[in-house]
Write a structure and sequence with these properties.
CATH architecture of the largest domain: 4-Layer Sandwich
Number of domains: 2
Number of helices: 12
CATH topology of the largest domain: Metallo-beta-lactamase, Chain A
Shape: elongated
Strand content: 25-35%
Structural class: alpha/beta
CATH superfamily of the largest domain: Ribonuclease Z/Hydroxyacylglutathione hydrolase-like
CATH class of the largest domain: Alpha Beta
Length: 402
């Protein structure tokens, strides 16, 4: 995509990445892609805000050159040190050795260790002002742990644009439109923003809420994150979504059920359908995931936003089916706590899965009453009991919201 003017003198010069399979080496994006949003402010002095991954160096330099000679940049502003934001820095430093690199104080040590850059670097302070001339004044806002300790945001005072770094961003390459009001797939980008939040940012809800509170005094027309859509029609919408998602760490999640299951020979899977019928008959939405085939990246948003968790998995060698254990350990790592949960599953000659489920549910502070193991294949009578099991669980979830 060519450079696009965001406001007079401010240009998006980002690049799309449709070839990386795993974001951070963990989270799948091969279908969705991701954008690395970078920006040039073309004042009397020229500033580049955020960069891109290393293999996008040529493309990013070409984008910059549409607006200004990269060799004549005055400032390179690093809001965040993660290599998807800074990977082209060494190349850019060779092209523009005179450009001063501005970053938070905690980023300077990272610059030295990641890129061996120690000269031409300056730490900026919280709320420090930098005039670029030509009607552009930048102000820096420290937002630590959204989501690294050195993260900051940059605000263009006259243009009223907040360059928000990872905050308010999301997965999804840009499909010919960079603004929310031009996008014809808003639901896709909102879902990918949620997935991004839960995968990347959700361990830090309090810093997120502190950052949102800190920014309340700014007059913001446009939120320009490092990934995903630029929010110019409804910047408050993505802020409100982030505030809502951060609140789930302390407040009850939405009424609804995430049903996770794994199966060895299809016996537990037979019961899944019956239990889901019971939940749905009580009027609750239920989302079903086979943990053998679904990456945790896609499951976590539902675990994070819904109050009820049903776990259906067989006993395997005296314990819980290993793919299910892996999924629950990821939920534990992301601190998805204080949910209403229940377990069901088949076993052959001895149970044991319930013991593992109980241990991890207690670690997660999940409330659970029903832990149900059945031997072998479910009979018609057991399937009817499964419907009742699901309906009973849905009633408990609804009672938690009363």
């Amino acid at each position: 995509m060519p450079a696009i003017e965001v406001k007079p003198g401010v240009f998006w010069i980002g690049v799309n990445d449709r070839t990386t399979d795993l974001f951070e080496g963990i989270w799948p994006i091969s279908r969705e892609g991701v954008s690395y949003n970078a920006y040039v402010i073309n004042g009397e002095k020229k500033a580049l805000i955020d960069l891109a991954k290393d293999f996008k160096a040529d493309e990013l330099l070409s984008q910059i050159a549409q607006i200004a000679d990269p060799a004549h940049l005055d400032y390179i502003i690093i809001n965040h040190m993660e290599p998807d934001h800074t990977g082209v820095l060494r190349t850019l430093r060779r092209v523009a050795p005179q450009a001063e690199i501005l970053a938070a104080k905690k980023a300077l040590d990272m610059l030295a260790h990641y890129y061996h850059i120690t000269e031409g670097v300056r730490a900026v302070a919280d709320r420090e002002i930098l005039s670029l001339g030509g009607g552009h004044t930048l102000q820096f806002h420290m937002t630590p742990f959204v989501h690294w300790p050195e993260t900051m945001m940059t605000y263009d005072v006259e243009s009223r644009i907040l360059f928000s770094c990872d905050a308010f961003g999301g997965y999804g390459s840009l499909q010919g439109a960079i603004f929310d009001d031009q996008c014809n797939r808003p639901d896709f980008y909102e879902q990918e923003a949620l997935r991004y939040y839960v995968n990347i940012v959700s361990l830090f809800p309090k810093p997120v809420l502190r950052a949102i509170d800190k920014l309340q005094g700014l007059d913001i027309d446009i939120i320009a994150p490092s990934h995903g859509l630029i929010w110019r029609e409804r910047p408050e919408h993505i802020v409100n979504l982030y505030a809502k998602w951060a609140s789930y760490a302390e407040e009850p999640a939405d009424p609804g059920v995430t049903l996770l299951y794994g199966t060895m020979y299809g016996l537990t899977e037979l019961m899944v359908e019956a239990v889901a019928e019971g939940v749905a008959s009580a009027g609750l939405p239920v989302e079903i995931f086979d943990v053998r085939h679904t990456h945790a990246s896609y499951v976590l948003p539902y675990l994070y936003t819904r109050r009820g968790v049903l776990v259906g998995a067989p006993t395997y060698e005296g314990g819980l089916f290993p793919p299910m254990m892996d999924m629950l350990h990821m939920a534990e790592h992301k601190r998805i706590q204080n949910r209403r949960a229940a377990y069901f599953g088949s076993y052959g000659w001895s149970g044991g899965a319930r013991r593992d489920f109980t241990a991890i549910a207690e670690a997660l502070k999940w409330t659970f009453d029903d832990v149900w193991e059945f031997k072998g294949a479910p009979s018609p009578q057991l399937l009817r009991e499964g419907v009742s099991f699901g309906r009973r669980f849905a009633g408990a979830v609804l009672a938690d919201r009363a």
